[in-house]
Design brief:
- There is one protein chain.
- Helix 7 (about 285-295) packs parallel to helix 8 and helix 11 (about 365-385) packs across helix 13.
- Helices cover about 35% and strands about 15% of the residues.
- It is built from 14 helices and 15 strands.
- The strands form two sheets. Strands 7, 8, 9, 10, 11, 12, 13, 14 and 15 form a nine-stranded mixed sheet that branches. A six-stranded antiparallel beta barrel has the order 1-2-5-4-3-6.
């Protein structure tokens, strides 16, 4: 008897008996929504549905009484009335680890590149934990993205959440590829959500290239994927970035696009009966956007950082679109791409005047801040008087500020343009910005010398033109360095 008791105690028995999986059945299919009965499942759990072509997977997105609403992860095919629905929660995990680098996966972690399965002996199952905002480290140092205009005039801080606002066809994907190749971040995680299938292949092969792909993870959910798969693509992208951040890495997260994430959530919410609110978007969209964005950023002192660039597709180049307006309020700055600059062959087509980095004052020196502000003022002055300058109505010498803007505009255009394969480090970008500022300073000194030679008299106004007010030339607060 004692031997039997000892043997029973040595057995490793589970604490409680696992509940058996109870299958239900489909009762209705409306659009992309499946309705089932007879299940006891939680929202977010995955289920397997029997079809004529084999099992199809769906996720629980809501319920009403004993009716369970499911959204498929693929196109609806071969679904029959009364089909069996079985919970399969153990499928809802992705193997995280170094084996993800250089791979292309979908929103559920399935490889799309034909390089074999992801799972290895070192793969771990990992769940993100919400970070207390009081333990996040502040943003104090810049991140080099290899793009001169951004490094110099719109400096991004390590751990910043930035928005890239643009219409279709103005160079968003190209700019993302330039940042991927030129950044000094340890890991790059790219989410291509709702893109055309052709663009996914071209981005990986042509824009990203072998060098950029070696330290990058790409999550792709093309435009023909189901709304749930597009939603999962965004969430998987954030999960992978969070995993590497928790390992102490500095991650650059590029998600294209936040608008398609909102559209996918809108399709799901409307399908399960949620009422629309703002321009067809239900309230759940505007609650999910900040929840997604806040997952990026700096971690604690023992963790790394996630510097995130979220692209926002502005329909008809309207920056007052509901998603664009909401994104500006929850992001730490925005970069606006101009269709007018793109049509003129100015790439990257960054509209410096309309763009801003809210953490730039905390990560750059006072000298760079003054130089960048001076260049922005020159651009604003030129754009405000562009019509007069174009038609020749402006008389040179009427306003020293406009004269300086006209003089420096070609140099600013040269500074803000960059080849797609060109990488400009941060220090080189800063040296170019300093050279621009020195050109302004030299121009101001020459005008002051000319003014002194004429005895302090301003040039006479042209016939029929009102005399210009005597305004001092723009002064710079930094000196030329050896």
């Amino acid at each position: 008897m004692n031997n039997l008791l000892a043997r029973l105690k040595s057995l490793d028995l589970p604490e409680r008996e696992a509940a058996p999986k109870i299958s239900g059945h489909l009762v209705r299919v409306v659009g992309i929504t499946l309705e089932a009965r007879g299940l006891q499942v939680a929202v977010g759990e995955r289920c397997s549905i029997e079809t004529a072509q084999g099992p199809m997977y769906a996720e629980v997105v809501g319920f009403a009484g004993d009716i369970i609403y499911l959204m498929p992860t693929e196109q609806l095919q071969g679904v029959m009335p009364g089909a069996r629905v079985t919970p399969c929660a153990d499928l809802n995990q992705i193997p995280f680890g170094e084996q993800l680098l250089g791979r292309v996966i979908d929103g559920l972690g399935t490889p799309l590149d034909g390089l074999g399965p992801l799972g290895t002996l070192q793969a771990v199952k990992w769940t993100a934990q919400r970070i207390n905002p009081m333990v996040r480290t502040p943003i104090r140092q810049p991140l080099d993205v290899g793009v001169r205009a951004i490094n110099g005039l719109l400096t991004i801080g390590q751990g910043q959440r930035m928005g890239l606002f643009a219409g279709s066809g103005v160079g968003k994907s190209v700019l993302l590829g330039m940042m991927t190749r030129g950044t000094t971040a340890d890991i790059v995680v790219v989410g291509l959500i709702g893109e055309r299938g052709r663009e996914v292949k071209e981005f990986i092969d042509d824009i990203l290239g072998p060098e950029g792909r070696a330290r990058a993870v790409v999550v792709a959910a093309p435009a023909d994927a189901s709304p749930l798969m597009r939603l999962k693509g965004c969430e998987t992208t954030l999960q992978i970035a969070e995993y590497f951040r928790d390992q102490g890495r500095n991650v650059l997260l590029l998600m294209d696009s936040l608008t398609r994430y909102a559209m996918a959530q809108r399709e799901i919410a409307l399908a399960v009966g949620e009422p629309p609110a703002t321009k067809g978007y239900p309230p759940s969209v505007f609650s999910k956007l900040p929840a997604l964005v806040e997952r990026a950023g700096n971690g604690s002192a023992q963790q790394g950082s996630i510097t995130a660039i979220f692209t926002v597709l502005v329909e008809g180049d309207d920056l007052q679109d509901p998603i664009a307006d909401s994104a500006r309020a929850i992001l730490d700055g925005h970069i606006v791409l101009s269709r007018q600059l793109a049509d003129a062959g100015h790439y990257p087509a960054i509209d410096v005047e309309k763009s801003i980095s809210r953490v730039m004052p905390a990560v750059v020196s006072p000298e760079q801040l003054v130089m960048a502000r001076t260049i922005r003022q020159c651009l604003a002055t030129y754009n405000q008087n562009q019509e007069l300058i174009s038609i020749g109505a402006y008389q040179k010498g009427s306003d020293p500020r406009i004269d300086q803007a006209i003089m420096i505009k070609p140099q600013i255009d040269e500074y803000t343009q960059q080849g797609m394969q060109e990488v400009v480090p941060y220090q080189q970008s800063l040296a170019g910005l300093r050279q621009l500022s020195l050109s302004l300073l030299q121009d101001a000194q020459q005008k002051m010398a000319a003014l002194q030679q004429t005895g302090g008299q301003m040039p006479a106004a042209a016939p029929g033109q009102a005399p210009a007010a005597a305004r001092p030339a723009v002064k710079m607060s930094f000196k030329k360095k050896n």
